[in-house]
Design brief:
Blueprint (H helix, E strand, L loop, with lengths): L4 E9 L4 E8 L8 E3 L17 E8 L2 E3 L1 E5 L2 E4 L6 E8 L8 E3 L3 E4 L1 H4 L2 E2 L7 E5 L11 E3 L4 E3 L6 E5 L2 H4 L4 E4 L2 E7 L2 E8 L7 H19 L11 E8 L3 E5 L3 E7 L13 H15 L26 H18 L5 H17 L8 H6 L12 H4 L5 H17 L6 H13 L2 H4 L8 H9 L4 H8 L7 H5 L4 E5 L10 E6 L2 E7 L4 H5 L6 E5 L2 E2 L5 H5 L7 E8 L2 E8 L8 E5 L6 H10 L2
Parallel strand pairs: 1-12, 18-19, 19-21
Antiparallel strand pairs: 1-2, 2-8, 3-7, 3-11, 4-5, 4-8, 6-7, 9-10, 10-16, 12-15, 13-16, 14-15, 17-18, 20-21, 22-29, 23-24, 24-25, 25-26, 25-27, 27-28
Helix pairs in contact: 3-4, 4-5, 5-9, 10-12
Length: 595
């Protein structure tokens, strides 16, 4: 196609995990055309250096081979040439995640950030991609799944697809293979669900029915009058594995990984916890269609994918999305109150478990995502707080506060709709995002509630959120049962063979006080062998205050430690909805049911 940037991508050697890409530029820059591959992918805030997977690259024009000079780790410049410039390169694709590219004899998957070099200065042109089938009879049944508009291809077929510009090109992941697929409509918009992997007796009908409820509830939240979705078509793409979990949002699709056991089986009536976890993942990524893909921090408008984009607002964009993901399951009738409060309890306990929450605010956690959250080590619980987990609790606390102080006339829903109207609905024409200091002003304007103190304490400060006080007006009892917990060492363990390895040693706990460290292999308590599975059983015979002799290997050296066990080391908060308290029950119902 003329006046466009043209790509061809072919699964050249699935056994070697190699895609071949050709890139044609009709009018290269006279001084020499520059190309680069993104260093990170939106939604995953870590420099990943995708260019490291380019294993071979060459350029040519009508005059023959064109020299390429590498300017930095992900940038090349071609020498000046006459006429069309064509690059040919191979990309190694063996990352089974939602962030990069993967190819073998069973399927292919890629994000554009991993395979499509940007043509500097021509990013705003239309971008056309010719997706080709791998050679061989064994690939005749393969199909294509993507939300990218077709140009000269049938739906699910190989052929050419088109994006308005480079930004759109890299925001449409592509799945290749013999996947299962089904379609439903949510407020008139087609939604495809695509599953890759071996999944006996997958209940596609149930998935369509349940996801339709979630999608329609979210569309109605942002557009209560028009019920208009911000896309013409949406695709859920799921890679099914034995054990896995993850998702990454895109403007009209999402790439997911889930465990096979989490998906519904034909004839299975009850929804399992695993299935609700999968629905919650779908709900989370779908909510991002509005919150972060269109409503964005100013620093992401537009993205600079060559270097980090620092923002202190991920508690709002990721944290609020985490708040709404399960809430939308409740509002859709796919999770009941007790299940919801059980999930909330788990989140609260997870945040309270780490002392990092007393050192890092969610605003700081957001800003430091590039160097801390996405690069966690064994000391992470003692040094950081999750802007996902605590951010979701901030969203809950703000929602409850606004509802209580306005007597139910306003809620966080109103704030999200205003964000959508001002920063998302017409984002392409506005060309701006939410500024770093604009959130408080907008919240107060929309709700009429003074929230400066809240922001200072819980968003920019490190105070624990007072859920006992916040939930009482909504007829939910909060209790911490750690006083009944068994004695513990204050550690998180993992299995290494049959050994008990200390993955994290919590600051201030018995193991920390005794001198144990993450990475130590705990082998005995008072002379009794400890294995990968029996530590809790061994410790259950002791009481708080008892001193135990611990033996552990650090590297290849046997060491001994004396630890004093404590009671209630692990938070055990439970949330219990009261049965018939009026008017609090009606207030709770409005929060959990009304969109």
């Amino acid at each position: 196609m003329r006046n466009a940037i043209n790509y061809t991508i072919t699964p050249k050697d699935p056994a070697a995990h190699l895609f071949e890409v050709t890139l044609s530029v009709d009018k290269p820059a006279p001084e020499g055309q520059t190309f680069s591959l993104p260093a990170w992918i939106p939604g995953s805030y870590m420099i990943r250096e995708f260019a490291r997977n380019i294993v071979r690259i060459a350029a040519e024009s009508r005059d023959g081979q064109v020299a390429l000079a590498k300017l930095d780790k992900h940038t090349w410049q071609a020498a000046p040439c006459n006429g069309r410039l064509v690059l040919t390169y191979e990309v190694y694709a063996w990352d089974l995640s939602v962030r990069a590219a993967h190819l073998d004899q069973t399927h292919g998957f890629f994000n554009g950030t991993s395979v499509f070099l940007a043509v500097h200065g021509q990013e705003d042109l239309p971008h056309v991609i010719d997706i080709r089938r791998p050679e061989g009879d064994e690939y005749k049944a393969w199909r294509v799944a993507t939300a990218m508009p077709e140009l000269k291809a049938r739906r699910y077929g190989f052929g050419t697809y088109i994006a308005a510009d480079y930004d759109e090109l890299i925001d449409h992941p592509v799945e290749l293979g013999t996947f299962a697929v089904a379609t439903f409509k949510a407020h008139g918009v087609p939604h495809d669900i695509v599953f890759t992997g071996r999944i006996p007796n997958l209940d596609l009908a149930r998935l369509c029915n349940d996801l339709k409820k979630v999608c329609e509830a979210q569309i109605a939240l942002f557009e209560p009058k028009t019920r208009r979705a911000p896309m013409d078509r949406y695709v859920f793409m799921t890679m099914v594995v034995g054990d896995g979990y993850g998702g990454l949002e895109h403007r009209a699709s999402t790439a997911l990984i889930c465990s096979r056991a989490d998906l519904p089986v034909i004839g299975q009536k009850e929804a399992t916890d695993g299935y609700r976890t999968y629905l919650g993942l779908c709900s989370h990524e779908y909510f991002h269609t509005w919150n972060v893909k269109r409503i964005k921090p100013a620093v992401f408008a537009p993205y600079d994918l060559r270097s980090e984009g620092y923002t202190s607002l991920l508690w709002l964009f990721e944290g609020f999305t985490s708040y709404y993901d399960d809430l939308m399951l409740v509002r859709s009738g796919l999770m009941d109150e007790k299940q919801y409060f059980k999930t909330l309890s788990k989140t609260i306990n997870g945040v309270l478990r780490g002392s990092g929450r007393t050192k890092q605010s969610v605003a700081e956690s957001s800003f430091d995502a590039w160097v801390k959250y996405y690069r966690q080590d064994e000391n992470a619980p003692n040094s950081i707080v999750s802007y996902y987990a605590k951010g979701s609790l901030v969203g809950l606390a703000l929602d409850l506060t606004i509802r209580e102080q306005t007597n139910g006339k306003k809620s966080l829903d109103d704030v999200m709709r205003t964000l959508w109207q001002r920063y998302g609905r017409d984002f392409d024409s506005l060309g701006q995002g939410l500024g770093e200091t604009e959130a408080l002003k907008l919240f107060e304007e929309v709700t009429g509630v003074k929230l400066k103190r809240f922001f200072e304490r819980y968003i920019h400060g490190t105070d624990d959120l007072p859920f006992d006080k916040l939930l009482a007006p909504f007829a939910v009892n909060v209790d911490d049962n750690r006083k009944n917990a068994k004695p513990s060492l204050g550690v998180r363990t993992t299995r290494e063979g049959n050994d008990c390895k200390l993955a994290n040693v919590h600051e201030g706990g018995p193991a920390h006080a005794a001198g144990l460290s993450a990475g130590d292999l705990l082998i005995a308590v008072d002379g009794l062998r400890v294995t990968a599975t029996n530590l809790e059983t061994v410790l259950a015979r002791y009481r708080a205050g008892d001193t135990v002799l611990l033996h552990a290997f650090r590297r290849d050296e046997l060491m001994a430690f004396n630890a004093v066990l404590v009671q209630g080391d692990t938070p055990q908060v439970t949330l219990e909805p009261q049965d018939k308290p009026a008017p609090q029950a009606r207030r709770r119902a409005t929060w959990l049911v009304a969109a």
